[in-house]
Each structure stands twice: as structure tokens, then as C-alpha cells.
Fold this protein.
Amino acid sequence: MPRGEAALDLSLTWVELVWIEKQTEHWIRFGQVAAEQILDRRRRRVAFRPGSVFALVRWSANDAGTVASRFDILRSAPPGSPCSTTPGVTPGAESLLRISGWPRVRLALAAVDAVEALGLDPVDAAPDHWRHVHNRLMGRTRTRPYTLRRHRAWRLRQGLDA
């Protein structure tokens, strides 16, 4: 999509990404980017279509070390739909998972890696799985693994598989 047209598409969810070495890093862990705008050497914006699932990692540090680690799995909402606000995400998105603190972020990233180890794109995993991971990590309990059987059941409920 040309730069000007993407900027005018109000149905897109925009995410600002930042990279300032050893200070601030915001990046997309997974998701299908619909458009991109480079703002300057350190900042760019990426856009996602309505209904798209994506993961945003936010990290910041100072001279003493890591100050904040955050990990969000979000689903972009259609215009006019209710959504949660997340820093750097315009206009907002449905929150499937929101974790902060490196120990929990590390476990959430491991859950993403486990889905990928099954040969699946995390974008296609059942949204309920990400909600489950969020709730279990916040409750400091073990998460159930995502399995191919659960994935097939999810796809059958959605009418995506025969």
C-alpha cells in the first residue's frame, strides 16, 4: 500500500516502534504488517488490518540495567469497536495478553515459542489460548500447552477446517 494511502486508512491499527540502543526498544514479535512508515532513524510505525493478531514487546533500561519489560498480544479492532489503550498503539486494540516484568515476559515468550514449535504461526492460535496464558501467568500458575488438537478444535469452531 503506498505511504499516503496507508496513512489515510482509518481502519488500520498503528503501532509505533522505537529502537534507541541500550535504552528503549519496541518491536513486533509476530503479526502480519499491512503497512509501514519510517519516521526517522530510530522510529517507525507499522499498521495492522482489523482483526489481525500481533505481539508487541516493549523494553527499557538505564545505566543500572533493565527498568521495564512488557509483552502484549493484541487483536486490532474494527473502527468504532471497543478496545483497550496500549502505549504506542493507535487507536487501541483488544488485549489478549498483557504481561510486565522480565520473569513473566520470558514465560510468555516461551509460550509463543511453543506454538511456533508446533509449526503454527502464533497469529493463527486461538485467542482464548493467549487469554489463558495471561491469566495463568498473572496467577503464578503453570499454563496448559497449546496442542495441535486444541488448534484443530479452534479451527473447526470457526468453520475454517473440514
The chain has a mean pLDDT of 91. Helices lie at 3-8, 102-117, 127-138, 148-157. Residues 59 and 69 are 5 Å apart (CA to CA). DSSP finds four helices and eight strands in the chain.
